[in-house]
Amino acid sequence: MLQNIDKILEEARQFKAETKKEIEQFRILYLGKKGALSELFKNFKDVPADQKKEVGQKINQLKQFVSEKIDALQAGISEEARTDDSRDLTLPGPPVQAGARHPISIVRNEIISIFGRLGYTISEGPEIEDDWHVFSSLNFPPEHPARDMQDTFFIEKDPDILLRTHTSSVQVRVMEKESLPIRTISPGRVFRNEAISARAHCIFHQVEGLYIDKNVSFADLKQTLLYFAREMFGKHVEIRLRPSYFPFTEPSAEMDISCQICGGKGCNVCKYTGWLEILGCGMVDPNVLEFNKIDSKKYTGFAFGMGVERVAMLKYQVKDLRLYFENDLRFLEQFKAAY
Ligand code: DAH
Description:
CATH class of the largest domain: Alpha Beta
Bound molecules: 3,4-dihydroxyphenylalanine
Strand order of the largest sheet: 1-4-5-9-8-7-6
Order of helices and strands: HHHHHEEHEHEEHEEEHEHHH
Number of domains: 2
Radius of gyration: 39 Å
């Protein structure tokens, strides 16, 4: 028996296995169900008692040798695979899908960049606001019907806490904490209790603008907005200002840009008027300056507010607002080329 084990050990030592298949054959030959080792264990019961210890040790040594040899052979194979130079390491890897900015972010960033070139800083304020910052300090008297125009979402029962309906609230926060002169834009999200349709959504984005200094005039406002319109929509764009009403500006206006589709001749995009409405603006009402402790005899200012979705709709000719919120990749992927 002992000699037999030595013979098997010697054969195992000599065994040459290089491929995966050969290593498997080796394993089956020695460790398999009908392999050499299981045969030895089977015959172990017939070994005389005084030899059992020595024979047992030998069989275990053989088993250990075979297991270690299999491990070593397998490690050798993977080592070889690693240095296998039949692989072409210069082949390009699988393509990486690049993401893209959302069109609303693209337009917002462009608005920020245009006003940045005019020296405007960026300011932000909270989305959950109080009545003072959204309405009262902007010259909305308590019972004024203009409050209804804004379809406010109130939070719980306290009518003082609400979701801001416009970013004009940030004007107030800036006036409270910053020193004059002020030249800032405030991009942000706003909320209105409106039914969702192609033209309206309950969440959308605005950019507010505010400029306060000595001798700021309506002519400055007009020139600033003309610069903005031409940077955003092209250098042949014309603007027109129509008288309007906002509680926080006096006089107030709404600005239209000439329709770029028909060049002002009239088409179904501009509803045959040649003009497209884009923003609200005006001279800051002296009451608003005074509410915020700014001397309205010394200082004047202008303000404007625009909807980012509105600008994006005009820029990209996308007529259904809902597309901006659905995150359908077939829509979003069309903006990949833009920054
Ligand atoms: N806050 C107005 C709105 O949400 C937009 C607006 C109009 C802002 C005129 C202004 C402004 O600063 O002067 O409809």
